[in-house]
## 1
Amino acid sequence: MRTKHGVGQVVVVVAVCLSAFAADPGTKEFKFTVGPHASVSIINQYGPVSVKPSSDNQVIVTATAHSDKVQVENSQSGDRIVLKSRLLAGATPANGRVDYEVLVPADASVSLHSFDGPLHAEQVSGDVTLEGDTATMDVRDVAGGHVHVNTLNGPVTLTNVSNGHIEITSVGGDVTMNSVTGPFVEVTCAKGKINYDGDFGYAGNYKLTSHTGDIVATVPADASFDVNARSVRGDVQNDFPLRARQQIAALPQRGRSFVGSAGRAASSVILRTFSGKIRLKAR
């Protein structure tokens, strides 16, 4: 009798566990207490992810599943939080969608992944990583840390990003940067356009490269930078009266490149494209 009773208890426990992990559409909230510099990762095949700062040491995730064809899995290992949308049989981009709204401590690092997004992060000082295919990607009002963005065809916008190490890689998505400065800013596009509107900061290294896309950089008339711009087949335009460098490996080709310094040449700027146009505009 004891043996049968024990087996019965095990069967009941297993049934309860399976029920707890069953897919359930609707909105769920997950809360995690973390220490300084926590890491939060959201992996979502379909649907938006938005990250904003919380007022304490908690990570609060509100996840809304659009059907029972997707479920949200979550785990915590110390100060590392992972949430993942798991598609079930019969899932489609429509019914497999989950909407995430995430609050994290301001010093947390976040990693967001979505096929179609959009992905949004703001007012955090930790590292920010965004990855997607067609997802719109938006990072704003962040300071310090690393910002890494990888996309196939989604547009990328960075706004008010200061003192950051920034790396953006895009195949066909356009990249727009407004008031973006840092010791290292590198954007690499295959077909996408690059639009920079800022001041190139101070003592930074900026490299903007696109194979076929245009590059437009708009900076104040009193900006301080050293520039080397070249388009193999496209036209170039420059609004600044640049001072010639003392040492130049090769003379710039008229209409295809320009090289020189403005102000105190505080930052280094490299602009490169194969067939796109380059325009350095004075605001």
Note: The chain has two domains: 23-117, 136-283.
## 2
Amino acid sequence: MAADPIQVEVCYALPEVQAMVALSLPAGTTARQALERSGLTRRFPDIKAETAVLGIRGKRVEHGHVLEDGDRLEILRPLTIDPKEARRRRASQVKKG
């Protein structure tokens, strides 16, 4: 008997646009397979399935990670600034203000 399908969301966000695709997938589907089935690599050509950094709830996962029902797979973008530097800048602005 086949396992019930799992429900997952694949998400990608840019400063100006956010995309979320809900999928019903076979149990045992990997993160990479879900990314490819989401269609987001066609919609956003800057996403390269081979090198995309993926996460679930903000924690990185490998492409071979098997998804569970209810997972939200996130396509992570590189940081534009080091978080420590961002905190320093905010603290500096507070001191000046």
Note: The longest strand covers residues 6-13.
## 3
Amino acid sequence: MPINATYEFAEAQKKYDEAKTPKEKLTALKDMLSTAPTHKGAEKLRAEIKQKIAKFKGLAEKSKKGGSSKYLSIKKEGAARVSIIGIPNSGKSTLLKNLTGSNPKIADYPYTTIEPEIGTMDYRGVKIQVIELPAIDRKYIEKEKGLFFLSIAKTSDLLVAIVSSQKDKELIESELKVGECNTKTVFISQKDDTERVREKIWNNLHLIRVYTKTPGKEKENIPVALKKNSTIEVLAKKIHKDFVKKFRFARIWGKSAKFPGQNIRNLNHVLKDEDVVELHEK
């Protein structure tokens, strides 16, 4: 605290230290500047505050836009997007390789991953995009590409965070909060079995697999991924919008049917995992 600082300045500085988002930091800095001493000995302090105001003003503007315009966004593909996050050397690259078969750079020194690494996880026929984000550390949002990485996390359907201690967990939660990222996060250990992680991802995405079938033929081998509690109408729209307009009835085999091949004439019928649906048109 500078010499001759007022009580108001001390309170503003406390708010700055406790602020979580760029917007909150900016508001506190403006209060600090308005209450800072104005004598010659405080010139350096006022200059530092002004520099921070300029920086956080830029961060607040970029945060509103959802990331930095300097970097291109990554196209969302597959049934869902999952991002792997963690502190340096937490095992993110190894998990990405085990889940997707991709070959990210793996080393025993920190910050090996400097750009997002992308792979595709196959869960019983459903393709899920998996992205490994560069390591999270303190002031992540202030890194050169921090807002870009956080924008990927925000547009993910699920975050998988690798932690080895409560301290790691608290750091990650804090940095996500600062970046205003509210994406659902599941925490795992580096020692967790890959197949268990795969199941955990699937269960937390809240998706179901539905197989389509053409009359007189076997069901398709590749399922359609839908959100839980999706209806026949949702499935029909995903295949082709004309199916809804021309819908006559559907035959269903599976958990949502009272008996195999049940005729359903209601588009609002709720489907269940592994149902087989045969759509009939007018």
Note: Residues 66-72 have pLDDT under 50 and may be disordered.
